[in-house]
Amino acid sequence: MQTILGAGGAIGIEVAKALTKYTDTVRLVSRTPKKVNATDSLFPANLDDPAQVLKAVAGSEVAYLTVGYEYKTKLWQEKWPVLIKNVVDACSQHQCKLVFFDNIYAIGGDNVTHITESSPISPCSKKGDVRAAVDRNVLEAVEKGKLDAIIARAPDFFGPTSRQTSITMNLIYDNLVKGKKAQWFCDASRIHSTGYTPDLGLGTAMLGNTPTAYNQIWNLPVDPQAPTGAEWAGLFAQEMPRSNAPAGVQVLPGWGLWTLGLFIHVLKEMYEMRYQYDRDYFFDAAKFNTAFNYLPTTNVAAVKETVAALREPGL
């Protein structure tokens, strides 16, 4: 049996779909889990409670941690240290392998201009500090021989299951659907790698079912062609010609994030992350693509599939 902790989010759903290639028994764990596949087993649990996490992991060969907390620094500071301790302890006790779906917030500053598995942990934000501590917890457990684990990293992402949680979808797709100009942060001329959720979910499942992949950091599969913010807007606009939205992209400058953040909470939270938009942000997945001979979905195809899946009447 393989278990998804934090099932139901954009990535958890895609991992559940992909795991059917490897197992007939997928356990979905969250407060209110819902089946993705007909054969899924549901396990309601509060992952803040170590006893419940222990029960949720019991009997599992591999556990995938795909939790996505609400985008609030204070909440992350409260929740993540507790969650990762609960999960690491439970996996260690049950001799269950752990695959942690991670973002790249632990990597900061100019290190985001070319992100590889060897990029140094170098947070430059409060949310990055939280994720760095989580990464170190997992890596330390591996070094001490407490468990076998993988940190599977992904950049920003988009896809049919992530409309509510993807910055790319919020800035571009949601505006175009409303007939408004697409938006971007800081500098739309900078490249910005963005993952496609089906590729990220499949890649996570592939790693979890490859014994030689453990006790390493992996960048999940992403198209090596990284468009600029303006080019991302153009890709979506090309697939949404009847949206009647103005051409081009409206850029929200860094100082604007701070000002607008006084009224819009998510923009306040994005202010400290502006370093991911005011310079190139390139995610290098060559290690994964080479090891698995994997060809990620192209950005053009990914946008086409996403828009088609979400197409609304008249658009």
UniProtKB/TrEMBL annotation:
InterPro entries: Epimerase_deHydtase, Lipid_A_modif_metabolic_enz, NAD(P)-bd_dom_sf. Residues 4-180 form the NAD-dependent epimerase/dehydratase domain. Keywords: Membrane, Transmembrane, Transmembrane helix. The chain crosses the membrane at residues 247-267. It holds the Pfam family Epimerase. This is NAD(P)H-binding protein.
